[in-house]
Amino acid sequence: MLARARAAGAVDLEAVRRAVGAVRDPELDLALADAGMLGEVRLPRGGTVRVVLRLTTATCPLRAELIRDVRSAATAVAGVSDVEVHVEAMSETERMSLAARLRGGRGSRHPFGRESSTLVYAVGSGKGGVGKSTVTANLAVALARQGKRVGVLDADVWGWSIPQLFGVRRPPVALKGLMLPLPAHGVVLMSVGFLLEHDEPVVWRGPMLHKAIEQFLGDVHWGELDVLLIDLPPGTGDVALTLLELVPDAQLLVVTTPQPAAQHVAARVARMARDAGMPVAGVIENMSTHVCSSCDAHTPLFGAGGGERLAADIETALLGQIPLDLPLRSSGDLGVPAMVASPDAASVVEVGRIAARLPVARRSLVGRSLPLTVV
C-alpha cells in the first residue's frame, strides 16, 4: 500500500525530514537535526509540506538564509510542490542544553591546547600600517578555498579591522555565555568590533586584555577548525604576551614591508616570540611593489629587500612578497576580501601562493618553559 501511495505522487515525509535535517546552520556548523533545530514535519494538504524551524534566538540574523535553505532541501524531495516554514525560538532549557553540548565538557577551557589538531598562526608586525590585517583576511579566505576550515580571531582590540575587511557589522549570537562566531566568505570570525559601536574606543589595560583574549578563545564555539589565524596588534605588548601563554603551540607569521624601518621593528616581534619558545613560521613581505592599474608596471615605492633581510636575520623562510595593487586596497574599503572580489589580481595570486607554502605540521612544544609572565 505504501509503495502504491508513493507511486501515485504521495510525499515521503521521512525523506523530507532527512533532507531538511541535513541542512547546516552556518554559525553552529551543525546539521539542523543534530542541533535540535528541526521541529515537526507534516503534510497539511496535497504536495505542501509544513516544517517547523527552531532557531537559537528569535532574532537570529541568519533567519532568512536558513528558511531559504530549508525550502530548497524540502522541494528537492519527490512530490513536494510547496513548503511552509514555521519559525519558533528554542526554549531556555533547550538553549542551555545546546550550549553544554557545544562546549563538549571542556567548560571554559579553550580548544586550542597541545592536544588540539588545529594549526594556530599568530599574525604579527612590529609597527602598524604594514597591512597585517589585510594579509590575515585574504590569507584566511585563501586557506578556506583550499578546503580548510578556517577561523580568524581579531586580537587587535584597539585597532580592530576584521569586521570592516569582511563586511560584517552585527553582534554575535550568544548561547548561555557561549558566543557563535560570525561566518563570512567561508571563514568564521570573532572580533571585539562585533560587540561595540563603530566609533567606540577600547580603553583596556593588561588584566582586561588578558581576560578578553581568554574569553575569545574559550567562550566562542569555534567548531572543528583546521586553521586559526590570530590577528595581533602591532608590537610586543600585552596581547602578544597573553597569546604566548594561552596558545603554547601557536606559530608566528611576521608581516613587514620592504622598508628598513618596518623590517627592524618586525625583527623585535620575532625575537620576542623566539625568546618565549614560539616558532616563527615565516615572513610575509607586503607592499613589495606598486602595480600600476594602467600599464601593469611594478614600482618599488617602499624600497626593496626588507622581507629577505628580515627572514635571513631571524633565520626563517620568506613565504612571499605581496604587491600593492588597486584591488587589494579597494577591497578593504568595500568589505569584501580581494581574494573574493578580484581573484586574478597580482596581490591575490601571491596570497594564494603563500597559503600553499604555509607549514602544515604542528610543532609540539610540550615541556617548554615560558620566561614571560602576564601580570
Automatic annotation (TrEMBL):
Q: Which PANTHER family match?
A: IRON-SULFUR PROTEIN NUBPL
InterPro entries linked to this entry = FSCA_dom_sf (IPR034904), MIP18-like (IPR002744), Mrp-like_CS (IPR000808), Mrp/NBP35_ATP-bd (IPR019591), NUBPL-like (IPR044304), P-loop_NTPase (IPR027417), YlxH/NBP35 (IPR033756)
Q: Which CDD domains match?
A: Mrp_NBP35
The entry's protein name is Iron-sulfur cluster carrier protein
Matches recorded under SUPFAM superfamilies: Fe-S cluster assembly (FSCA) domain-like (SSF117916), P-loop containing nucleoside triphosphate hydrolases (SSF52540)
Return the similarity comment.
Answer: Belongs to the Mrp/NBP35 ATP-binding proteins family.
Query: Which residues does UniProt call coiled coil?
Result: none
Residues annotated as domain MIP18 family-like: 14-87
Under the heading HAMAP family, the entry gives: Mrp_NBP35 (MF_02040)
Gene Ontology MF annotations: ATP binding
